[in-house]
Amino acid sequence: MDQDNLEKKEYNSQDIISMWDDFHSVNDKAHLSGNTAAHVLKHLNIEEIRPAKVLVVGIGMGYECFYYVSVGAEVWALDISNRALDRVKGSCKILNTREYEKLPKNYFDLIVEFNVINHIGDEDFKEQLKWVVGGLKKDGVFAAMVVKPIEPEYNERWGQSTEMEKCVVGAHARKHEVFVKWLEEFGGKIVWQGECFYEVKSLGLENYCVHIKRV
Predict the structure, then answer these.
(1) 51: cis peptide before it, omega within 30°?
(2) What span, in angstroms and rounded, lies between the C-alpha atoms of 213 and 135?
(3) Domain that holds residue 182
(4) pLDDT one-digit tens code per residue, 89-105
(5) Helix, strand, or coil here: 125?
(6) Which pTM was predicted?
(7) Rounded percentage of the chain residues whose pLDDT exceeds 90
(8) pLDDT at 24
(9) Once rounded to an integer, what is the mean pLDDT over residues 8-24?
(10) Which long-range contacts (CB under 8 A, 24 or more apart) does 76-84 make?
């Protein structure tokens, strides 16, 4: 995905929810991550996992949802945008992020979150961790792409930016130790971490993937 191109796009939405609804209404693949399911599974290192029950957090164009449905899994889709959820309605069980409390506990073999965490502000992300980690089976895997800042490029670029500005290009980056601390607060632990696979120096960001277990 071309992050620099995202930065140049205009957005006129009044809030984050309506912004994502607008992106979904026009199938804006640049903002919705047009990555194929194969691409996501490869980078998340979950190609060999055969889950019975899957939760996809932030569904984008729905590719991961449809893939796991096609191989016989029970798939739940969680997104901030009802227009996003309309893509997979009828194929998946759908929940809006304002309905976290409806997620079952100790239920999912696999939770997939790719290019989403970096679009979420701190308080919303901690709320997500509380419910999502709790929904993971003890032997399940929460596979996620995480973004961390490259300093000082990140501070120079985003020091005075608003929540909306960071959200639109996925610039909500946390230091790794902060991410680990929050995970531990909500009962999660990193059991595998991949190398940085994508760096955007102009935005001061680098991406890596992790596997999380519930402890």
Answers:
(1) no
(2) 11
(3) 3-214
(4) 999 999 999 999 999 99
(5) helix
(6) 0.91
(7) 78
(8) 84
(9) 71
(10) 76/103, 76/108, 78/103, 78/132, 79/20, 80/16, 80/17, 80/20, 81/17, 81/20, 81/21, 81/23, 81/24, 82/21, 83/20, 83/21, 83/24, 83/25, 84/20, 84/24, 84/32, 84/59, 84/60
Residue with token string 């055969």: 50
- Pull the structure tokens for residue 200: 């955007």
Q: What is the rounded average pLDDT for all residues in the chain?
A: 91
Q: Is 11 helix (H, G, I), strand (E, B) or coil?
A: coil
CB 136 within 8 Å of CB 144: no
* Whole-number pLDDT of residue 21: 85
Query: Encoding tokens for residue 188?
Result: 């999660």
Quick one: which of 118, 182, 144 has its CA closest to 57?
A: 144
Pairing of strands 205-214, 136-149: antiparallel
The pLDDT-based confidence of 168 (bands split at 50, 70, 90) is: confident
Total domains, the chain: 1
Whole-angstrom Cα distance, residue 30 to residue 11?
13
CATH number of the domain residue 176 falls in: 3.40.50.150
How many Å apart are CA 59 and CA 75, to the nearest integer?
A: 11
Q: Which amino acid is at 68?
A: Y
Cβ atoms of 200 and 169 closer than 8 Å: no
3-class DSSP assignment, residue 31 = helix
